[in-house]
Amino acid sequence: MRSLPHSGERRPVTHWFAALVAGALPLACTVSSPPQVQNPFVGDWATAEDASITIRPDTIVQHQRDGESTTLDKSACRGLFRFAYGTKSRDALVDLISRQPDLRQRLSTLLVEQSYPVAELDCDRGDQTYVLLNDRELLAIYRDGDIGAIDRLARR
Prior knowledge:
Elements: H1 7-31, E1 43-46, E2 52-55, E3 60-63, E4 69-72, E5 81-89, H2 90-94, H3 101-110, E6 115-123, E7 126-132, E8 137-144, E9 147-155
């Protein structure tokens, strides 16, 4: 039969274990960070005709078919630039195109929910409102003064 180790023989194991715990403690505090909330608008979107845009957290980049791209910012918008995310009611979105009854009716048919997440860009004399229909579809409402247009985009 073997005797239990003396208290002097436990020290190396105790010190080793304490050093291991002390070394792992800072790692435990830094490894687990809260998950980042993804912005559902950010990414590449395209129309059926292959016109496309890239929505970034702070602006929009328009891509032309010839390969040229335009970043809509203060310089491209002659200093009149605003970009924000929010929510709009269905009625407020339909009212964006109040002077074009046919387009207003089409928009009214497309928007079936009471409210939608939106990304709004004001640039010079025009504005663009991007309506998130679901995680794969986006509706763009373009306005230049009283003239409006709408486009349906899909996530690439």
